[in-house]
Structures are given as structure tokens and as C-alpha cells.
Amino acid sequence: MKERTYEKYFRQNRLPHIWCPGCGNGIAMKAIVLAVEKQKLPRDKTIIVSGIGCSSRASGYMDFDTLHTAHGRAIPFATGIKLANPELNVIVITGDGDCTAIGGNHFIHGARRNIDLTVVLFNNTIYGMTGGQASPMTPLHKKATTAPYGSVDRPFDACKLAQAAGASYVARSTAFHVQHLTSMIAEGIACKGFSFIEALVQCPTAYGRKNKMPDPSEMMKWMRDNAVMKAAWDKLPEDKRTDKFPIGVFHEQQTVEYTKAYREVIELAQGGRK
Amino acid sequence: MNNMKLMQGNEACAAGAIAAGVRFFGGYPITPSTEIAETMAKVLPSVDGCFVQMEDEIGGMGVVLGASLAGKKVLTATSGPGFSLKQELIGYAACAEIPVVIVNVQRVGPSTGQPTSPAQGDVMQARWGTHGDHPMIALSPWTVRETFDATVMAVNYAERFRTPVILLMDEIVGHLRENIELPKSDELNIYPRRRPSKTRAQGYEPYAPEKDLVPNPADFGTGYHIHVTGLVHDYTGFPSGSPAVTEEFIDRLHKKIAIAQDEITHYDEFFMDDAEYAVLSYGGVARTAYEAVRQAREKGIKVGMIRLMTIWPFADKVIRRNAEKLKGILVPELNYGQLKYEVERAAAGKCPVKLLAKYNTEIFTPSEILKAIENLEGGRIL
Ligand SMILES: Cc1ncc(C[n+]2csc(CCOP(=O)(O)OP(=O)(O)O)c2C)c(N)n1
Ligand code: SF4
Ligand SMILES: [Mg+2]
């Protein structure tokens, strides 16, 4: 059996976690620590920052300096940490509501600044923690407690949003594709700029039950059957794309990173002194 | 004389912040506080600090709290509308015990109100603006030089008590220019960032209180692997649903400030020795009040003045002690009446307390306050 080397990254005394049986959050959390291990990030210099939601509870289980902020505010806190001490590696864990509703403004501005954060969005397309209200990423016509007749709000594509706002690295994967997800996060960590990884995760409790998919394994099979690798997706004719979605790296272009740009401000202010 | 400088209140605030060791500012521009951000943008990079303009005031609070956790001394500045937005994370700072100074250069509200006009309408918001039970320290300077001192003090208190501290300025003092002499750096007492008193191996608990009831959570990146949350937490820093833990936690937050209250209550008394009446004032209004009291004395009215620099926690003892021997207290405020009710509560019926409220964008004239003093003396106090 393969040694579970990643377990050292968890606070064993804080487990078991509070998530429901079958919840996808644990898979995404494991993918993050596998990526941290893969990139050999020094644990004392790696900070995990999260917002509020089921997903954001992950920070409490991870054995680093960890910060569980307020709803939607993880990115500003993370920005402050990174600017205060650029040698730190800062990973943000957020939910679809946390990142694109209440935290939407911080999200696009973090991407615009291109500050070196790795933001992992656990997308369960619902407000899990508060019992299943619609989020800005709930698919059209799907049910939520606040959309009992099906949602009429058009959802965000958070990857497109991140790219348009200026992120250096943008990718998507799912809880079914664990190894793929891990490498997407690892690449995001390696990228020195704002990296955004959307991880589709199943929420059988608040989303599945309301949308005729209460079984977590069914939800994961749905991910397997409908996720299409970017290269194949690009060749897929429009009429074959219905209900399917692309995964993989959508954008990778490293431009000047914010803490580096500010280093230049410091040099200018000090008259060119290094 | 060599160190004399013509300085604006807002500039003195920025200078005080730098002198106190602030090396990080994040915020969003708003009149009449903007000069603080502008000065910090210019000065911070030259002292290896960092300035960042955020997307809004919530982001401005978040970014300074993150930087504080990573070891920097931090400050943010705003005015009414932005102060409202900052309330969410002021509560976070109180709960997670993160040192931060929030400057509010008050203007007329509610809402966008009168952006360029002075007011003192945020006295109660400074105390109770964020939700839940929490202590608060707020300082309100009345001169440009005192703005410098109060900023240094605010940074020191934020670090010492690991709590948000509000520098409650107003447009009068923020935009006032005075010739001042700044203290030399070796004349200042600067409170350093608190450090863990134990190692992890010695059983370090980041939120275990020290003797002064303040904990020493380690700065991020120093190897302690601490957890910081806005949920109620026990000494380990992890959330707890226990009623006993919650009660002790809320108690301790209050007590860590309460046991130091006398030490952090700063005020002046003028002409109080034989005073039968007093004017109680604070901030920019105290300047006018002082002139009015001086003129009243010239007319032979036995009136004195109490000037509060520490607004919160409220100077109950000072008011109570004076109320015992006074026939009345006049409280002029540039609002509809806010601190007056605190004065009344603290006076506890020992003497009547009268409000002189003004909320039309104009500042008081000495003659307005003088007239109110004469009315007090005429026995027409309400
Ligand atoms: C300011 C504020 N508004 C509302 C809430 C209540 N709330 C907590 S979590 C949450 C939604 C979480 O959804 P999401 O970000 O998608 O995370 P999930 O629980 O699905 O992982 C809400 C609305 C809050 N904590 N703070
Ligand atoms: S409600 Fe959904 S997201 Fe939250 S723990 Fe349960 S399954 Fe996971
Ligand atoms: Mg969600």
C-alpha cells in the first residue's frame, strides 16, 4: 500500500472533520496538501487562508499557520499577508458563494493586481453551510431552498471571470479527477502570480438531495461523464457541448507579479537604492 | 525652534503612525481623510513599508488585518461611509485579537451626508458599530500635535491589548494646520509586537492569556502553526461551542481593557479648581469651548472645562468625581446628541447635564458656547 505521506499535513487532533458523509470537500483538501507536498513548500512558510462556508472549514484541519476569515474576505487578508511578507506561500480556500457573491469584488481585484496567491474554489454550486440556498454559480433551472422553482439567475463562469480580470493561471478540475486536480493546484502554486483553480466538488446534502442526485457516488460519476479535457472540448461541436463542461488549464500567462512590482516602488522611493 | 513644522492634522496622523512603527497601510480614499492615505503612499515605501489602495473599505480592513497577522504594525483611515463598511472586520479584529488602528476623520452623516463638513456623529458608531459584545478604545485629539501623540498612543494600545483602536478625528482637526514641533524618536515609548512566551514543545497555546489577560498569538511564518478564526475559540485558537468557554472569552475581551482603564483615560481639566459649572468637550469642538470658557471666566463666571481625549472606554470616574461638586455640565457636540447621554449616565443625577447640539455643517462659534454657559449660570439649566 502506498504510504500516506500527506497525512503529516493534517492536524490529526482536529479530525474527524465536520463535513457530511460523501462530501467532496475532503477530496479537494487532500488535493491541496498533495500539491503542497509535490511542490515541496516549506510548511512554516505556507499560510492557508479561507473565508466562511463548509469549504472554508478546511483551514482548521491543515497543519500550517491557518486563517479562517470572514465571509468573502479571504483574498484581502491573504493579500495583506503576502504583501507584508512576500517570502510566504499563500493558499486561499473559498466557496462558490464566498468567492463570487460576497467576495466577488475582492476576487476580481486580487486577479487584477496579479498578486501571488493560489486560490482554490471548492465549487459545490450551492450555499452548503447555510443549508442549500442558491449561489451565483448554481446552474440555471437547478433547485435551491431560495430557488424552489429552479434558479433563473444566470451563473458565473468563475474561470472566465478570473482570466478576464487578469489572473496569471486559471484551471478547473473535479473531485472525481483527483490526480488531475492535484496537478492543476501544483501548477497554480508554481505560477508566480494570481492562480485560480476551480475544483468542482459534490454536496450531496444541500445540493444533491434537491436536484435528484442524493448519492455522492452518482454525483462523482456525473463529473466523470460530463467533464471534458480542454483539448477535446475545443474540438467538440456546439450541439455536443450541452450539459458538458471543460476541465484543464484555460489560461497561463505570467505577467508582472504585484509584490515584485511593489518592490520597484520601494526602490523608486528610496532613490534607486536596492 | 529648528524642529518646527507647519503641519495638517491628517499629516500629523501619518507622521505619528510612521513614528509608532506602522509599516503597512491599506485603504480606500474618502474625504476628509484622504491626505492620510496620500501621505502613507508616499512615505511607506521609503521606510521599507507597504501601501496598498484596495477596492473598498472592507478590503482595506481585510488587507491590514492580514498584514498585522504577518507581523506588521498596521493602520487604515476613512470617514463616515467607509467607517460603516469597516465595521464587519473591526469586529473580526476584536474577536481574533489582531492589532489594528482605524482612523475615522468624521464628517456630516448619515449616508453621504455633507462630505466636506465637520461633525462628531460617529461617537456611538465607534463604540457599537460592529455587532456583538466587544470592548473599544477610541481617542479623539484636539490639536495637530496631539493628533501625532494620539496616533502613537493608538498604535501602542492596539499592540499592547491586541485590539482594534479607533482614532476618532474630525474634519476640524484633520484639516487644521498648526506650527508644531514633533518629538524626537528617542523621546517616544513604542510598544513592540508581543511574542509567544513559550515554544510549541513547552505547550504553547496561542490564545492563552498572559497576566494582563492579553494572549500572544505568534506572527504567521514563525513556525507556530496557529489557527486564527472569528468564531469563538478556546486557548488553542480553535472554535469551541462551549457556553463556559464563550462566557470566559467575552469576559476576558472586556476585562483586558477594563483593568487598564485608568491608565488609558486621557483628559484635561481647565479652570476646574473653583468651578461651579463645567463644559465637557472633545475633538475640534474643544478648541472653541476653551475660548468660550476663557471668555466666561473674564466675565466672572465660575466655569471650568473637562476635555476628553479618551472617548472609549468612557471616563466615568472623571465625570462622577466632578459632577459631585458641580451645579451643571454643558456638552457642546457637533451632532444631535451622543456623548451627552454618557455624561449624564456617569453623572448619575449628581448634577444636571445639558446638551448644546449643532448639526448644520457649521462649527460652533465661541459666542454660541458662551451664551449657553451664561444660560447655565442663569439657572436655566434643563
Ligand atoms: C456577512 C455574512 N453573510 C452571510 C453569512 C452566512 N453564510 C455563511 S456560509 C454562507 C454561504 C456559503 O456558501 P459557499 O461560499 O458556497 O460555501 P459552502 O458552504 O458551499 O462550501 C453564508 C451565506 C455570513 N457568515 N456572513
Ligand atoms: S452541506 Fe454539502 S458542502 Fe457542506 S459538508 Fe455537507 S455535503 Fe459538504
Ligand atoms: Mg458552495
UniProtKB/TrEMBL annotation, chain A:
InterPro entries: 2-oxoacid:Fd_oxidoreductase, THDP-binding, TPP_enzyme_TPP-bd. CDD domains: TPP_OGFOR. Pfam families: TPP_enzyme_C. One of its GO terms (molecular function) is thiamine pyrophosphate binding. Keywords: Oxidoreductase. The keyword Oxidoreductase applies. This is 2-oxoglutarate ferredoxin oxidoreductase subunit beta. It comes from Pectinatus cerevisiiphilus.
From TrEMBL, chain B:
Keywords: Oxidoreductase. Signal peptide: none annotated. Residues 16-239 form the Pyruvate flavodoxin/ferredoxin oxidoreductase pyrimidine binding domain. The keyword Nucleus does not apply. It comes from the Bacteria. Pfam families: PFOR_II (PF17147), POR_N (PF01855). InterPro entries: 2-oxoacid_oxidoreductase, PFOR_II, Pyrv_Fd/Flavodoxin_OxRdtase_N, THDP-binding, Transketo_C/PFOR_II. One of its GO terms (molecular function) is oxidoreductase activity. Residues 275-369 form the Pyruvate:ferredoxin oxidoreductase core domain. This is 2-oxoglutarate ferredoxin oxidoreductase subunit alpha. It comes from Pectinatus cerevisiiphilus.
